[in-house]
Each structure stands twice: as structure tokens, then as C-alpha cells.
Amino acid sequence: MKQRARIRLIVIYVAAAIVLLGTVGPFLWLVSSSFQYERQLLNRPPQWLPNPIVLDSYREIFEGAVLGEASGVPYQSRIFLRSFANSFFVAGSVAAIAVLTGAYAAYPLARLDFRGRSTLLFGILASRLIPALSLAIPIVLVAKQIGMSDKIISLVFINLSFILPYVIWLLQSYFKTIPMELEDAGRIDGCSRLQVVHKIILPLSLPGLTSAGILAFLLTWGEFLFALLLSESPASYTSTVVVSLFATDVDVSFVSIITAGVISVIPPIAFALIFQRFIISGLLSGSLKG
Amino acid sequence: MQTRRETEQKEMSQGLMALLFSAPAVLIIAATILVPFLMAVFLSLHNWNLKRPGRERFIGLENYTDWLTDSDFWEPLRTTFTFAILAVVLIVFIALLISLLLNEKFPGRGVLRALLLVPWAIPSVVNALLWKWLLNPQYGLVNAIAFEIGIITEYQNVLGSMPSVMIWLVIAYSWIHIPLATLLLLSGLQTIPGDIYESAIVDGAGVWQRFLFITLPLLRPMLSIVIIFEMIFALKVFDIIFVLTAGGPADSTNVLGWTIYTETFRKLDFGAGSSVAMLLGAITLALAILFYVFLDRGVEQ
Question: What is the mean pLDDT of residues B201-225?
Fold first, then answer.
């Protein structure tokens, strides 16, 4: 029996090693490549670890952002940091507004008894079945007409509406797990509905609100289609757009392209690992990310 | 209770309250999803090309009939389904294997589960950039490994020809989609009570029999959900195509998502673009409903 237990463990760890390699391997190679000289990247066989650790491509991006054209670095490198800040602004605003408005919309769906409750919930969820590509066409047309194209505030607004259904769904299922007795106790003490939400539901839902906020941030950070279609200049480019400008340009050095990729995934990966418990619980109750 | 009833009376009806509470969120969703959807329907029934301004006019279903009688629709449709089916099969197969592994108890399991979030968190565009680098015809790691092991004698441009471009596109796409499928399947596995397995072992069932007669049937509801979700996602693939292949080589990876994009934003034919987008939406919806009914009925039996 002991022998069998040992074999079981060996099989498990061999399988785990393969999964580990497949999961983080490709990304670690990207990180390793970003710290090498361009000419080292062209080595055959490839050089696995950077030796020495080269920071030139990272410096390029900072110099480019500060010095602009005078730095002599490629256009994409110069505008990258600004797009990075734009991404933070858009994803952060979307997360904050989505959780705030989503919580108020989720409360009646979880707790109040009114006509059309299930219709409202179904309508909110069904809105996500419409492919974003078909909505993008009129949205871009209207945005251009009313002068809202090329503004990051438009990106906040658009992303918000795609994230809100998820957030509402997530929060209403979380609110349902809060014991009704607590709410009743508050009502007996004379709290109004609004006070019940503010003093009982929201404080008790902090884990759920955190999950929803982090997921909203991550999904918005990775959004590409609308970021591409609604931006025309560095003022409104997000990091995914600049990464695509890098990736589709054959004249930029590999190491610059790779470094941009690495920097643009630092926030989402750091968030994902730091808040993994919140994310996994949120994912399992909401089933997200398309 | 007396106090509660009094408070209740002082307040407005629950319906009105629900309306006020959900108004901001609902208005935002309506303004950016419902209104554009109706406009997209409107555009799809019109001749609306930005290259020929002033000639917009209502043409009924002409855009639709044009697409449905044109190989420019059927070819991308076939490519879309080829891509989606391959991707769903790969994602579900690998995710099932990983979730079975993570369902076992062993030291380090939590760490492995957490690291699954690394590919999940990578935006699709960065993922495309990563694979563009891995598959580079002169310096890519995939080429280097295959060459060093001796599988190939010279470096290949896998994105330059069929069928390798489709295979690698599917792999690259699947890489960031496997983690969520894995986590969902794992949560499904964890609802299967352990004593069913124990009694099966007592009855002399082997590993394979336990998987086939216990795990698979009990996992079926979650498996159906994952398959439907992944199918819906894969049918509207766009980001990775934009960066990795731009529909090429020679239209071999021209999926409907790419057709919609080029038709609308390069040829500036908003009417044609809207109608093909509607067709893709209708196909996706019909398929989702069909799967749902079909798989759901299977579960009941």
C-alpha cells in the first residue's frame, strides 16, 4: 500500500510539473527575453536566462516618455507609459463606478419583491449575449458624430456597460447569502431600506464587492476592441492598443515589443496573484471573461 | 412587527424603490447596449457606406440576402466553426485533465491552482504578442525546441501556411482560456461526494471505470456549461486574429469577426458590416439555445 501511495505521488508531481511548465513557462520566457540584448535574442540555441541582465529596453520606455522625440526611441515606446496610465484610469474608474451603481441595482434583485424582477434580471444578463462587434459599429458611428470619439471618458462609459451585467449578477448572488434576520433586525430598529443597504448589506458584502471590483478592473484592463475603435491618438490609447501597435510593426526591435508586453501585464498578473482568493470565488459565482 | 409595518407604510412601494435603485445601472446598460443594438438592426437594413455619403437608403433584407448568397460569408463561417470547434475541444480536454489533477490532494495544489490565474490574467492582445514571439520563424522558442530535439531540420514559419497556422492559432487562443474552464470543472468535481468513489472501489471498479461511470456523468452539467460558454466566446474571436494573422495567409484564418471588422472599418460599409454581425449574433444565439436544450435534456436522462 505504501508503494502505491508513492507511485501515486510521483505520477501527480510529474503531471503537476508539466502543468506548471505549460502555465507559466511561455510567460517566463517573455520576461527572460525582455532582459536580454536584441542580438542575444537571435541566438541559436536560445539563451534561456538573461546574462547579463539588460535593462535598456525598460530605460527606453521611460526615456521615451520623458524626452519625447528627442530620445530617438520608436514612436510606440514614447507613447507607451501614457497609455499605461490611461489603462489605469479607465480600468480603475470602471471598477469603482460598476461596483457602486451595480450594488444598488443588485440589492432589489436579491431582496425586494416586485413585478418584473425576473424580467429585469434576465434582460440585464441577455444584454451580454449580443456580440460586442455588432454594437461597436453604431457606437463608433455615433461617437464620431457627437465628438466623443478619441476620449478616454467614452471608453470608461462603454466598458462600464459591458462589465455592469457581470457585476450585478455577482453582487445579487452575494447579497442573497447574507442572512435575512440581520436585515430584519435592522428594519425593526427603524432603519429605512437605504439605511439597511448602507449599514448592513454593504459592510457585510465587502468580500463580494472586492471580488466584483477586481474582476471589473482586470476585464477592462484587457479590453481591446473598443479601445482600438474609439481611439485615434496617444491621448486615448490604452496599453492594449499600444501593444497591438508594437506587435503589428515589423520595424521595431523584438526586445522593445516584448518589454511593452511584459510591462502591460504586470498590473493584471500582480492583481490576480495577490487577490487570487477573491478572484477564484468571483469567477466561480459569475463565470467571467470572454 | 408593529414598528416594521409602520416603517413599511411610510416608505414607497417596493417596485418604485427597485426602479430607483437600479436606474443608474439600467440606464447605462440601455444607452450603450440596447440603443446601439437597435441602431445596428437599422443599419443592417440600409445601404450605408461612408465612402459614398448621401446615398443612404432603406433596402430591406438585401444586405442579408447578399451575404447569404456569397462565398465571402460561407467561407469565413466555415473557418469560424473550424476554429471554434478545435478550440473548444482542446480547451475542454486539457481543462478536464488539469482539473482531475487539482482534484487530488497533494502538497502544492493551492499554489498550482493560483498560478493558473497567470495565463487567465494576460490580455488577449498581449497573449497574441507572446505567441508571435514564440512562433517567430527565425528566432522563436517553439522552433528552437523542435529543432534541438530533432523534430524539424530547419526552422518553420508556422503562421505562413495552412494547416499549421490554424493549429497554432487554436493553441495560442486556448492557452489563456484553459484556466477558467479548469476552475469551473474543478468546482464541478468537488461537488461529487467522495463516498461514491469509495463504494465503487469496494465493488472493484478501476480508475478508468470510475472516471467513465461516476465522474463523467456527474460532471456533465458543469461540462455542458463550460462547452456552451467556450463555444460562444470562440465564435466571436477577433483580438488574436488582429495581431497574429490579420486573417491570412490568403484568408485562411479569416473568421467572421475579422470579416465584420474589415467590412465595416476598412471598407467603411457599415450596412454590410452590421448585417453580417447580426448573422453571427443570430448563429451564436441559436447555437447556445440548441446546446442548452440538447445538453440539458441529456442531463435529465
Answer: 87
Cell numbers placing A87: 489603462
Rounded Cα distance between B56 and B70, Å, is 22
Domain assignment of residue B128, yes or no: yes
Cell 512562433: give the residue. B135
> pLDDT tens across A153-210, in order?
999 999 998 899 889 988 988 898 888 888 888 888 888 888 888 988 999 999 899 9
Contact A187/B4 with Cβ under 8 angstroms?
A: yes
Q: Which residues partner with B46 through β-bridges?
A: B58
- B26: its cell numbers: 439600467
Q: What is the pLDDT of residues B182-210, one digit of tens each?
A: 999 999 998 888 888 888 888 888 888 88
Give how far B114 is from chain A: nearest CA, Å: 6
| Total domains in the fold of chain B | 1
Say yes or no: A261 contacts chain B, CB-CB below 8 A.
yes
Range of the structural domain that residue A92 is part of: 82-286
- Does a structural domain hold residue A278? yes
Q: Do A104 and B25 touch (CB under 8 A)?
A: yes
ipTM of the complex: 0.90
Spatial separation of the C-alpha atoms in residues A170 and A283, rounded to whole Å: 9
Q: Extract the C-alpha cell encoding B230.
A: 467556450
Query: Among residues B282, B260, B256, which one has the least CA distance to residue B269?
Result: B260
End-to-end CA distance of chain A: 45
Angle, helix B71-102 to helix A2-34, in steps of 10 degrees: 130
CA atoms within 13 A on the CB side of B120: 27
Give the gap in angstroms from C-alpha B36 to the nearest C-alpha of chain A: 5
CA-based nearest residue to A76, from A61, A59, A89, A66: A61
Report the SS3 class of residue B249. Answer: coil
Question: What is the Cα B54 distance to its own chain's centre?
Answer: 38
Q: Which residue has the cell 441577455?
A: A126
Cell of A274: 495577490
Could you tell me the residue range of the domain that residue B295 belongs to? 63-300
Chain B hits for A166, CB-CB cut-off 8 Å, are none
pLDDT of residue A126: 77
Q: How far apart are CA B105 and CA B294, in angstroms?
A: 34
Residue B23 falls inside a structural domain: no
- Look at residue B58 and give its three-state secondary structure: strand
Q: How many domains does chain A have?
A: 1
A138 touching B, CB under 8 A?
yes
Domain CATH number, residue A178: 1.10.3720.10
